[in-house]
Write a structure and sequence with these properties.
Number of helices: 5
Shape: elongated
Mean pLDDT: 82
Strand content: under 5%
Number of strands: 0
Helix content: 55-70%
Length: 171
């Protein structure tokens, strides 16, 4: 079975159909969210009874304020719990990074003299010359003078030693 390539017009048509379907789904979800909110509000928050005298209305206002205070306390407690949980999560992430360790990247070899390195680090402030060889103390080598006799002809040395041998033999 050979697969046919989609033409650009067909691809654009299919893409527009998918976008229309997605847009319809989003609109439907928004409508459902509004409906569920209205149903929840109707169930849990009945419309206030405005009939009656001023004392009854004041009592209703006090009840509403007490409910608002309770809800605010609950909201504050929940926010504190969430912040505490977030802090614990961040601490655990830090511990994981510490345990895993930070991978150090492989360093590349850079051929740079000490002067150029200091210029790169310090910028124009760098005035010291790092030519270390110029600061070294000059040491003169002592030339050992070897006696020229030792370097002489080897045959003479043998003859001298032969004379010594004769001296020991004659005595």
């Amino acid at each position: 079975m050979s697969e046919k390539k989609l033409t650009s017009s067909r691809r654009h048509h299919l893409k527009s159909l998918i976008l229309q379907i997605a847009q319809n789904w989003i609109e439907q979800e928004k409508k459902e969210a509004v409906e569920t909110k209205n149903a929840y509000m109707a169930e849990h928050c009945p419309s206030p009874d405005m009939s009656g005298d001023q004392a009854a209305l004041m009592e209703t206002c006090k009840k509403l304020h007490a409910l608002i205070d309770k809800i605010d306390e609950d909201r504050y407690d929940i926010e504190a719990k969430v912040q505490k949980a977030d802090k614990e999560i961040e601490d655990l992430r830090i511990k994981v990074v510490d345990l895993r360790g930070v991978k150090k990247p492989a360093l590349k070899k850079v051929r740079m003299s000490a002067d150029t390195m200091l210029k790169a680090l310090l910028g124009s402030k760098h005035t010291v010359n790092m030519d270390l060889r110029s600061n070294l103390k000059q040491v003169k080598k002592e030339v050992k003078e070897e006696p020229t006799e030792a370097v002489g002809d080897w045959r003479k040395n043998i003859e001298d030693k032969a004379d010594r041998k004769k001296m020991f033999e004659t005595s």
